[in-house]
Specification:
CATH class: Alpha Beta
Radius of gyration: 14 Å
Oligomer: single chain
CATH superfamily: NAD(P)-binding Rossmann-like Domain
Shape: globular
CATH topology: Rossmann fold
Largest sheet: 5 strands, parallel
Strand order of the largest sheet: 3-2-1-4-5
């Protein structure tokens, strides 16, 4: 299974990556805007799964997702207030690429709009914790 962690070298994404590195059935992509930082993280953290550095920005995420074909994308990038004019772009691109999406959001403001958007797209099966 391929897992892409957006913000994978940050505090929350990095910790998640460290925990997943012990699972040999995973390919873990450490994504972020700074490829140098992603590579540093990958070289410093090894396990049964090998982390791979990927340059990823919300502006180029569709192309990267098509190339990598991840099964699941974990968004640990935040803060959501800095997502710009199109805060759901990564979510849409994940669904278009056939990837599941989860977010380690630190706020609830983003999610009511997300739920409305998914209902509008005909994708009502969105789970949110805490509900």
């Amino acid at each position: 299974m391929k897992v892409l962690i957006v913000g994978g070298y940050g505090v929350f994404g990095g910790r998640l990556a460290q925990l997943l590195l012990d699972e040999c059935r995973l390919t873990i992509f450490i994504g972020g805007r700074d490829l140098v930082q992603a590579k540093k993280f990958c070289s410093a953290h090894q396990g049964m799964a090998r982390p791979l550095a990927v340059r990823l920005d919300r502006l180029n995420c569709g192309e990267v997702l098509r190339d990598l074909k991840p099964d699941i994308v974990v968004d640990a990038s935040g803060p959501f207030q800095a997502y710009g004019d199109d805060p759901y772009r990564l979510v849409r691109d994940c669904f278009a690429a056939g990837a599941d999406y989860t977010d380690l959001a630190d706020g609830r403001i983003l999610w009511p709009g997300f739920q409305r958007r998914m209902n509008w797209l005909g994708t009502p099966d969105v789970l949110r914790f805490p509900a």
